[in-house]
Amino acid sequence: MGIELGQTIVSTGNTRIGVLTSGGDAQGMNAAVRAVVRTALAVGARPFAVMEGWAGAVKGGEAIKELQWSDVSSILAEGGTVIGTARCPEFRDYEGRHAAARNLIERGIDRLVVIGGDGSLSGTDEFRGEWSQHMRELVDEGAIPQEVADEHPALMVVGLVGSIDNDMVGTDMTIGADTALHRIVDAIDQLTSTAASHQRTFVVEVMGRHCGYLPLMAAVAGGADYVFTPEDPVGPGWEDDLAEHLRLGREAGRRESIVLVAEGATDREGNLLTTQHIADTITDKTGEDARVTILGHVQRGGSPSAYDRWMSTLLGYAAVQEILSTGPEDVPCILGVRHNRVTRIPLMKAVRDTRAVKDLIAAGDFPAAQASRGTSFTTMVEINRILSTPPQITPVPEGSRKRIGVLHAGGLAPGMNTAARAAVRLGIARGWTMLGVNGSWRGLADNDVRELTWADVEGWAFKGGAELGTRREVPEVEQYYALGRAIERNGLDALVVIGGLNAYLAVKAMMDERDRYPAFRIPIVLIPASIDNNLPGSELSIGADTAINNATWALDRIKESAAATRRCFVAEIMGRRCGYLTLMSSLSSGAEYIYLNEDEVDLE
User: Fold this and answer.
1) Hey, how many other C-beta atoms are within 10 angstroms of the C-beta on 394?
2) Which end of the chain, N or C, is more open, meaning fewer C-beta atoms within 10 Å of its C-beta?
3) Catalytic residue among 110, 125, 165, 225
4) Could you report the per-residue pLDDT of 141-150, keeping only the tens digit for each?
5) How many other C-beta atoms can be found within 10 angstroms of the C-beta atom of residue 287?
6) What dihedral do alpha carbons 346, 349, 351, 353 form, nearest 10°?
7) Which of 296, 228, 239 is nearest to 266 (CA)?
8) What residue spans of 46-145 are helical by DSSP H?
């Protein structure tokens, strides 16, 4: 179940909360640390940073330091982790964990927020289980008096998952994964232009030693031709299948080819597939030059995306609430994300389930490995297969050929082209005839309709704007007859409408007129697209995430100027009747104050 974030738990007494980042760094860790520190201060607790991960706990002294409000200022936009992280071999030994217990208890810390991967979190749980033994031994050694041990009988921990691979089972997203995906998609966009110029193939290696989330999602977002993931290894004859995909893609109109490879990708026999081996295979099978690009640590570095700022902020806030309400007998938990909500996951169950995926892959049970990643992962595997497979390979289903119209309506939103491309290719795969309506409802009334082929939407995945065009106008009553005639003339069996509030209003008006205009009696599917994110029935409309990222980028630049000149800037954000963009941009940029339509402003 999700955590209720509206109620704040106030600390009683001299509660001290430690926060540390461990394992590999991930963009967004700083946002979580900042939220932990400021939330702790707001509820009356004292936050401490354990520097350099568990190495700081083992070292003690200045490596464990108290933080104040200003210590975490201006870190939202920074990549990595300002409190440091390190692999700590000493913490794997009992003696190292004993030293960590002594150093923590010297500062009165018995509550920890640990941000890291499955290794860091499982080590934390082992340490938590030994805590009472460490206390007894510290008393016997004379390091602490008995009354101190009695005051700290248990170590309470809350875990936040920092992993760009998004490999923790039980949570939809981990801290850093969204930013890493942005890095990959940006790289694909840049490689695509040079690849198209020379009709070349690029083989791109991305991170994902045991998890294929990054290559799979980047393949869908970037319109890649082929993808290699650990959970779905290629079988015998993959070389010919890859070459055929690339050849037929060229025939269907592609000028460029992008092949994505997870760094841990293998074939079904367990043989590691390197990018160079795949590139050599392409050259041997097609005679075409294939270039290798290894993105490496650029996926891990740099400023975090807006999502990795505001969601990590929510997780850090929730972690303090959780740790203040956790008792010695409670099962330690990880805070993750499900359906855009912060949720509790039993710590060791999440770790066991995550490690079990590697065992399923090793055992050759690939369907179970994919299923363990969640339904969204398995669904995306199928969607990617349909979107990337050239039409010559896809058999056309038998039966009636439905005729489906696709149009945009309302204000422009980034992602409209991507949605249209997906609708067209998924429809073609079902044997339907997909028709594009140019110029929204006015274009439909003017019968500006054309059939869209698989090749027609090639490249739309990463194009801004709307190739079909969009208008804000809602059809007038006088246009209904022309709309109905156009629907009948083109034999439309259904409409896919991608747009904002005006799209909703138009479809509602048409539904109200079905008795007078029988042509309107067809299924109409609305796909919400609005940067304001103000549409009913949708938590995140197409375009809203991009708008937040663009606003956050601009606010980062403004803050740099403000810091240099010690000025205050007032920034206006879009959202005539909805404060979503303003609120989320303020969370991701660290704004001092916000004015919202939904929050009444008085003179004071």
Assistant:
1) 16
2) C
3) 165
4) 999 999 999 9
5) 8
6) -140
7) 228
8) 54-59, 94-106, 118-140
